[in-house]
Amino acid sequence: MLKVTVEIWPGGHENGRRSLAAADIGRVINGALADYRVELHEDGQGGIGSAGLLDYPRYSTTVWDLVARAIAVALTGKEELPPRPRKLDVPVHVAGNIPYIRLREIPEPARSLFQKRIAYSTRPLIEEDPMPMDCAYSWDWFDFLAGDR
């Protein structure tokens, strides 16, 4: 079995490293044309995709080709990459003089990651918003996007 692990090393320092995601790629049928089973896992989200990569011509290229195709087939069901994600374009609202964003307008997985980062932060209570407890300061969102939070 191959295990591909994605780690983050904050500031390039190994002592702060933590795992973000992993891919488990196991050969289920041996031979010149092998079959593989791939499972993708992301920290905090569990399994995010699994699939079979069938009739893969072993020894024809590098292991990175196998890894790339296995990840692609687990994400899309095909041996091709999905379209590139679009930039997160979350609208900024203003109440009085407070710029804020609505958490419900942030697409996943960014919403869950952002909510973890602001779990112990002060958040505005926007009374005129339909969901007043579902808001965050816009500057916290922009700090998150810049990698500062």
Count of spatially separate domains: 2
Distance between the termini: 36 Å
Shape: elongated
Q: What is the helix content?
A: 10-25%
Give the strand content: 25-35%
Order of helices and strands: EEEEHEEHEH
Q: What integer is the average pLDDT? A: 91
Which sheet architecture does the biggest sheet show?
Answer: 4 strands, antiparallel
Query: Compute the gyration radius: what is it?
Result: 20 Å
> Helical element count?
3
Strand order, largest beta sheet: 1-2-3-4
Low-pLDDT segments, ≥5 res: none
* Number of β-strand runs: 7
Q: Structural class of the secondary structure composition?
A: alpha+beta
What would you say this structure looks like, in words?
The chain is built from three helices and seven strands; from the N terminus they run ββββαββαβα. The protein has 149 residues and is α+β, with helices and mostly antiparallel strands. It folds into two domains: 2-76; 93-145, no CATH class. The strands form two sheets. It has a four-stranded antiparallel β-sheet with strand order 1-2-3-4, with helices on one face. 13% of the residues are buried.
